Amino acid sequence: MEEYDLVAACLRGDTEGFRKIVNIFQGSLIAAAFNILGNREDAEDACQETFIQAFRHLRDYDARRSFKNWIYIILYRRCLDQVKKKRRFRSAFERAKREAPLVGAPASDNPGHGRIGDDVLGRLSPKERAAISLWANDGFTAAEISEVLSCSAATARVALYNARKKIKSFLENHHAPHGMD
Amino acid sequence: MRHTGWIDLACRLLPFRSWKGALLRRHVEKCAACQARLASRDDARRLLVQADDAEAWADVWPAVRANIDVGAVVDDAIEALESERAAAPAWRWVVAFAGLGLAVFMTFAVVAYFRTGPRPGRSGGGSAVFTGSTAAGLSLDYVRIGNEPARTLIFKPRGANMVIVWAEKNQ
Description:
CATH topology of the largest domain in chain A: Rna Polymerase Sigma Factor, Chain: A
Strand content of chain B: 15-25%
Strand order of the largest sheet of chain B: 1-2-3-4
Number of helices of chain A: 8
Oligomer: heterodimer
Strand content of chain A: under 5%
Radius of gyration of chain A: 19 Å
CATH architecture of the largest domain in chain A: Orthogonal Bundle
CATH superfamily of the largest domain in chain A: RNA polymerase sigma factor, region 2, helix turn helix motif
Order of helices and strands of chain A: HHHHHHHH
Helix content of chain A: over 70%
Number of domains of chain A: 2
CATH class of the largest domain in chain A: Mainly Alpha
Largest sheet of chain B: 4 strands, antiparallel
């Protein structure tokens, strides 16, 4: 109920209430965004945009639903926007590179590049990344994941299953197996 | 352990997600052998960035604060504009209809001007007498406008297969 009280305070014009909401969620939202996007700057941008959009649409929030799920829905959509933007940029960049080859290698835009997680997460689709992040980090169930991803529970289950399978296979092939469920 | 291969195959071959979902819900989520073939939460967490790590990266509040303040100003401005528009909707229609009426009037005026211009046979009209027109050239004996000799200019643009004859009243 604490979140609901904070939302109610924001709707009364109390910006400080929204600061508390940001403090509560920013760590988990940035982490989720990073796990989906694989890039720290993009993750921070997506997180900022999520909070701004959430603030502007607080009136649309239905208090009967979980605030955490609601804000994750916004985050996931912002992340998908980033993925699309990046895809467009990459295709334009590749075209430009073909037409005028660059001198020297372009610098990596990923400060987190080189982590073991980046290798395996790179093999997952954005939906699978979101599903595994929500399941492992935030303890979401398949039904809750489906709400965030705006898909059926069956689709969320399949995405989670595929992600877990790919991670398991990666760990078995590249690292010694650790403790299992 | 043997059945896990069949489950994998079924998950790959089942044509609909709803069927796959049902298989996962009814069997895989409850079967220890199938779960052992999938990454556990701990396995996944080792690869994922955690909230505690990300918390230390950046405080997004200053940027959010700046944007929601600007957003509030913009929202107020938009709201004021919209209420202004809502208050006087008739003026917009008056201006639009006046513009449309002016455009129609101008069109009729232009058409009427060209339709009522000088024509051959009318008083004030013009006439021209050709002595001959051959492949070699064109010659004009005289041109009259309103029974008065007119000033004439014959012009052939270079490279063009045409001749322009310009006649105007002598002032």
